Amino acid sequence: SQTIHQWPATLVQPVGSPLSLECTVEGTSNPNLYWYRQAAGRGLQLLFYSVGIGQISSEVPQNLSASRPQDRQFILSSKKLLLSDSGFYLCAWSRPESGGETQYFGPGTRLLVL
Amino acid sequence: AQKVTQAQTEISVVEKEDVTLDCVYETRDTTYYLFWYKQPPSGELVFLIRRNSFDEQNEISGRYSWNFQKSTSSFNFTITASQVVDSAVYFCALSDSSGGYQKVTFGTGTKLQVIP
Fold first, then answer.
1. Contact A38, A27 (CB under 8 A)
2. Quick check: B58 contacting A, CB < 8 Å?
3. Which of A46, A49, A108 faces B44 most closely, judged by CB atoms?
4. Which of A108, B61, B89, B93 is the most exposed place for a label (fewest CB within 10 A)?
5. Which candidate from B31, B50, B108 shows the least CB-CB separation from A43?
6. By the CB < 8 Å criterion, does A67 face chain B?
7. Residue A47: Cβ within 10 Å count
8. Residues A33-85: tens digit of each pLDDT
9. What is the pLDDT of residues B23-38, one digit of tens each?
10. Whole-number Å distance between alpha carbons of B85 and B38
């Protein structure tokens, strides 16, 4: 069976500090990978998605970046955090199909920027 | 453009009551897919159901049932005999049929509180 891991689970960082969140998927190969952000009490915002190693597409311009150094590893980074980067970050994967891929989500990382 | 509307922001019910969560969608595609996810207080989104636009059969899974009506562009979710463990935020989502990357549009969610 497939599992998706995210770490850390929670993070408190000062404004201007760097960020690195990691997501890994087990039990599948060549998944599509996604990073979402959920602000408190709000819906999900897609940040990045990847259909393969080194292939990253950005949905929202911001001070965040993503990388996919390995097939089942997806990293979300920032060089300098902003207060507005606080939120709940969710990683998801899906099996490439011709339509209607179901996305499966990880446990998330709660980020508080002070 | 795709759009998913969950007009009910918050719903409170007493345990054992039935509750229906509404979802209305907009898409220009003739082939599309609809989803429901549950987000308990722990935060992880849990997949509940996926439907394609060609399958309008209603589905029942235990206490959960889904009513898909293309004529009204709705995909409503009913919980029968609600329990405290059903307390969560529920998201409806829509994806189109283009190949490759599947963009999913999520609704803003409905927070369900089941009171014991």
1. no
2. no
3. A108
4. B61
5. B108
6. no
7. 19
8. 999 999 877 789 999 999 999 999 888 867 899 999 999 999 999 999 999 99
9. 999 988 888 999 999 9
10. 11
